[in-house]
Specification:
Length: 373
């Protein structure tokens, strides 16, 4: 049973974990609190892949006071030698008496072994304290480890009448600067930004993180670690001088096997990685595309695209979360809808759970989850 102090300490560990959420990828964000009775003697969080894990920072702060203490960790302590030595061993060596864990590590290299290591050495463990909250820290890491696919967040900007672009394709700008700054934060959470060639041809989107638009204290460091930009472009229409190609960071283009080889070479010479996929009627296999992103250790994908690709991803059950910015404007009936999904009957409608609506400048940010089961 979780007590009030369990909740207090695990909540603090979650708060600490959140501090690393823009910088730990492809690792999960993890926080740790060490307590002696009701006194906190150590705190830490994982900051960056390759650097010490949360427990190591908290143990360093606790020093000799870790002996006989209780450690609260949002994720099961690791049991493996990865980029760093196992945390379970570090906790045992420091003489920690009890370890309270938010959730088991879904990484198959750990998956319960960390907890077993602790128990074998007589450390008391409790697993699953505030698990629902803890799971929200790392949806992408959990999804990648459990399914071999990244977590896909679709970001869309629409008018009050549910329109996203004029018939000509013109769409800049529906929402205001605060909403656009929130989009920068969503990009910073993501290992990859996925778009369709239509957005590149129409808006010449760069899909980069920009220091002056990122309203985060770590903005300067974040722009040095740009998310991978991914363009779905079956016949390779992306111009070699498009901003997505010339901007900072890596670019990957998925095209069909029928695409022109000379165009492929030209885009490669401009610095893009071009991948040809088998395709039905010239369309890229979206599931295959997501599985390939896993080979690049991508946990979180931000889908920033138009109604066609967004609708296709949604219909195929490949969207895990929708983030819709709704602007106080009306765009009229000839403008494009939020998503192209040519349903004819109410039986086909997709049901969502809206979990959050809040004001962002003059716009509204709506978070919704599709029911993909
Ligand atoms: C922990 N505490 O703070 C984190 C953990 O490559 P490495 O050595 O950094 O190991 C990465 C793996 O360790 C990662 O996939 C996940 O299973 C676990 N992350 N574990 O005990 C932490 N960040
Ligand atoms: Zn560890």
């Amino acid at each position: 049973m979780a007590s009030a102090s369990d909740h207090q300490n695990m909540s603090r560990a979650i708060e600490l974990a959140r501090k690393g959420r823009y910088t730990t990828r492809p690792n999960p964000s993890v926080g740790c609190v060490i307590v002696q009775g009701d006194q906190v003697v150590g705190e830490g969080y994982h900051e960056r892949a390759g650097e010490p894990h949360a427990e190591v920072h908290a143990l360093a702060m606790a020093g000799s006071q870790a002996k006989g203490a209780t450690a609260y960790v949002t994720l099961e302590p690791c049991s493996h030698f990865g980029r760093t030595p196992p945390c379970a061993e570090a906790l045992i060596k420091a003489g920690v008496a009890e370890v309270v864990v938010g959730m088991q590590d879904p990484n198959p290299q750990v998956a319960g072994r960390g907890i077993r290591m602790l128990e074998e050495k007589g450390v008391v463990t409790r697993v699953g304290v505030m698990e629902a909250e803890v799971r929200t820290l790392n949806p992408g890491f959990i999804k990648r480890m459990q399914t071999g696919r990244p977590y896909v967040r679709a970001k869309l900007a629409m008018s009050l009448d549910g329109r996203t672009a004029m018939a000509s394709g013109e769409s800049q700008w529906i929402t205001g600067p605060q909403a656009r700054s929130e989009v920068q934060s969503l990009r910073a959470l993501s290992g990859a930004i996925v778009t369709g060639v239509g957005s590149i041809l129409h808006d010449n989107s760069s899909l980069t993180l920009r220091e002056n638009e990122l309203n985060l204290p770590e903005a300067e460091a974040l722009v040095q670690n740009q998310p991978l930009r991914v363009v779905l472009d079956s016949s390779l229409r992306t111009p070699v001088d498009a901003k997505v190609i010339t901007g900072p960071g890596q670019v990957m283009i998925f095209c069909s096997v029928q695409a022109d080889k000379a165009r492929k070479r030209a885009l490669e010479e401009a610095g893009a990685e071009v991948l040809m996929l088998d395709s039905h009627d010239g369309r890229i296999n979206l599931e295959q595309m997501l599985e390939i992103l896993i080979t690049k250790d991508i946990n979180d994908v931000l889908l920033e695209t138009g109604a066609t690709l967004a609708g296709a991803m949604m219909e195929q059950g490949l969207v895990d979360e929708l983030v819709v910015f709704m602007a106080p404007v009306l765009m009229g009936s000839s403008a494009r809808p939020l998503m192209d999904m040519p349903f004819a009957t109410m039986a086909e409608k997709l049901n969502l759970n809206i979990t959050d609506i809040r004001a962002v400048g003059n716009d509204w940010k709506i978070t919704a989850f599709p029911n993909n089961d």
